[in-house]
Amino acid sequence: MDGLAEPRGYRLFCVGNAMVDLFAEVSPETLGGLCARFGLDHPVRHVSPETAGAILAALRSPENAAAAVYSSGGGAANTAKIAAGLGVQTVFAGRVGPDSLGAFFKEELSKAGVQTRLGESRQGTGLFIKLSGGGVPGAPRKGIPAAGEWRIAASPGAALDLGPEDLPDPALSSGPDAAGPGVLMFEGFLMDRRALIRRCFDLAGRGGLRLAFDPGTADIAAGHAGEILGWCAGAAAPKTPAAPKDGDGLIRRVSFILFVNEDEAEALAAHSGGAGDTPEGKGRPAGWETLFTKLSAHAGGLLAVVKLAERGAAVFSGGVIHRAAAAPVAGAESTGAGDAFAAGFLAALLRGKGPEACGRAGNAAAALVLARPGTAGKTPDPPPGDQLITRAG
After folding, report:
1. pTM for the structure as a whole
2. Would you place residue 19 in the very low, low, confident or very high pLDDT band (cuts 50, 70, 90)?
3. Whose CA, among 51, 53, 77, 234, lies 20 to 30 Å from 345?
4. Residue 232 domain-assigned?
């Protein structure tokens, strides 16, 4: 760990993959060449650390002349960074590598006011690389993006080594000005690490914390729909004594906050038998509206939040739908907007605001990042080139 004292009085504890995001603008020819060279034949491709390093080296070469923006990333880390900027005392736990990217990640969060609990792994720090450059005019050729498309190469690296031992008791405190218990938030990319999930539930159950979760992708929501809906159905009101652990070792009955976008909500509704493909406002409620209305009516500790992009958000609490409209925002880069929404929502919730006000706060926070790449508040200098692609042996 990074040697900091145990956090005291912190309200939000975020757990997730520590990543460095790189947004690179290149020429259409360069984008096509990188796609062909590194097998980026789909919009999102997971690559090895070695391939990620080679892409970075290619982007730094004079002939490519990429305009790049670096930012700390990962869903939970983005939420922590934005929440800290909104005045919430915040802790983030994750894993980084022994490289300059890890140092960059920690520095960015620290500058934002986040206290970090970062374990160090032998693997390199995780990388998320988004390439855009206009694509190739006309119909796309095999493996080559068409005009207006982009490619993502993701390499989690050290982030995958995060385990339950990296989560000390967060000692989240309500404090004299608190409106309720603190929040522990974890992300969907942790779902296959069962011991880590158990640790999150254990900390929330023992500490009387609200537990927040964002699946991150529709595939994760669909693949774990039964478990996620089980968490929703078992949500207990804040400060309710924890129920005994079930056979999987999870304390189920904790206050639960679910953040999903519309695709993820539809995946959950499809699993439950709802009409997940019914468009909102076309004569009858979407399947997820029925689903979350029923779940929130029966589970006293559930807040289900559906992020609807330019249409705002729908917040389900106590069987009631609270709608929060969003103001139009000019900006095409949406990476991190959902994470920022969660930060704004939780910041308002921790100050005792109601569901609709929390939704509006989430919309406002998301709007702040829509016009810039990821959650970067500025364009930082990249780590030195000779350290950027270093991978520990």
Report:
1. 0.83
2. very high
3. 234
4. yes
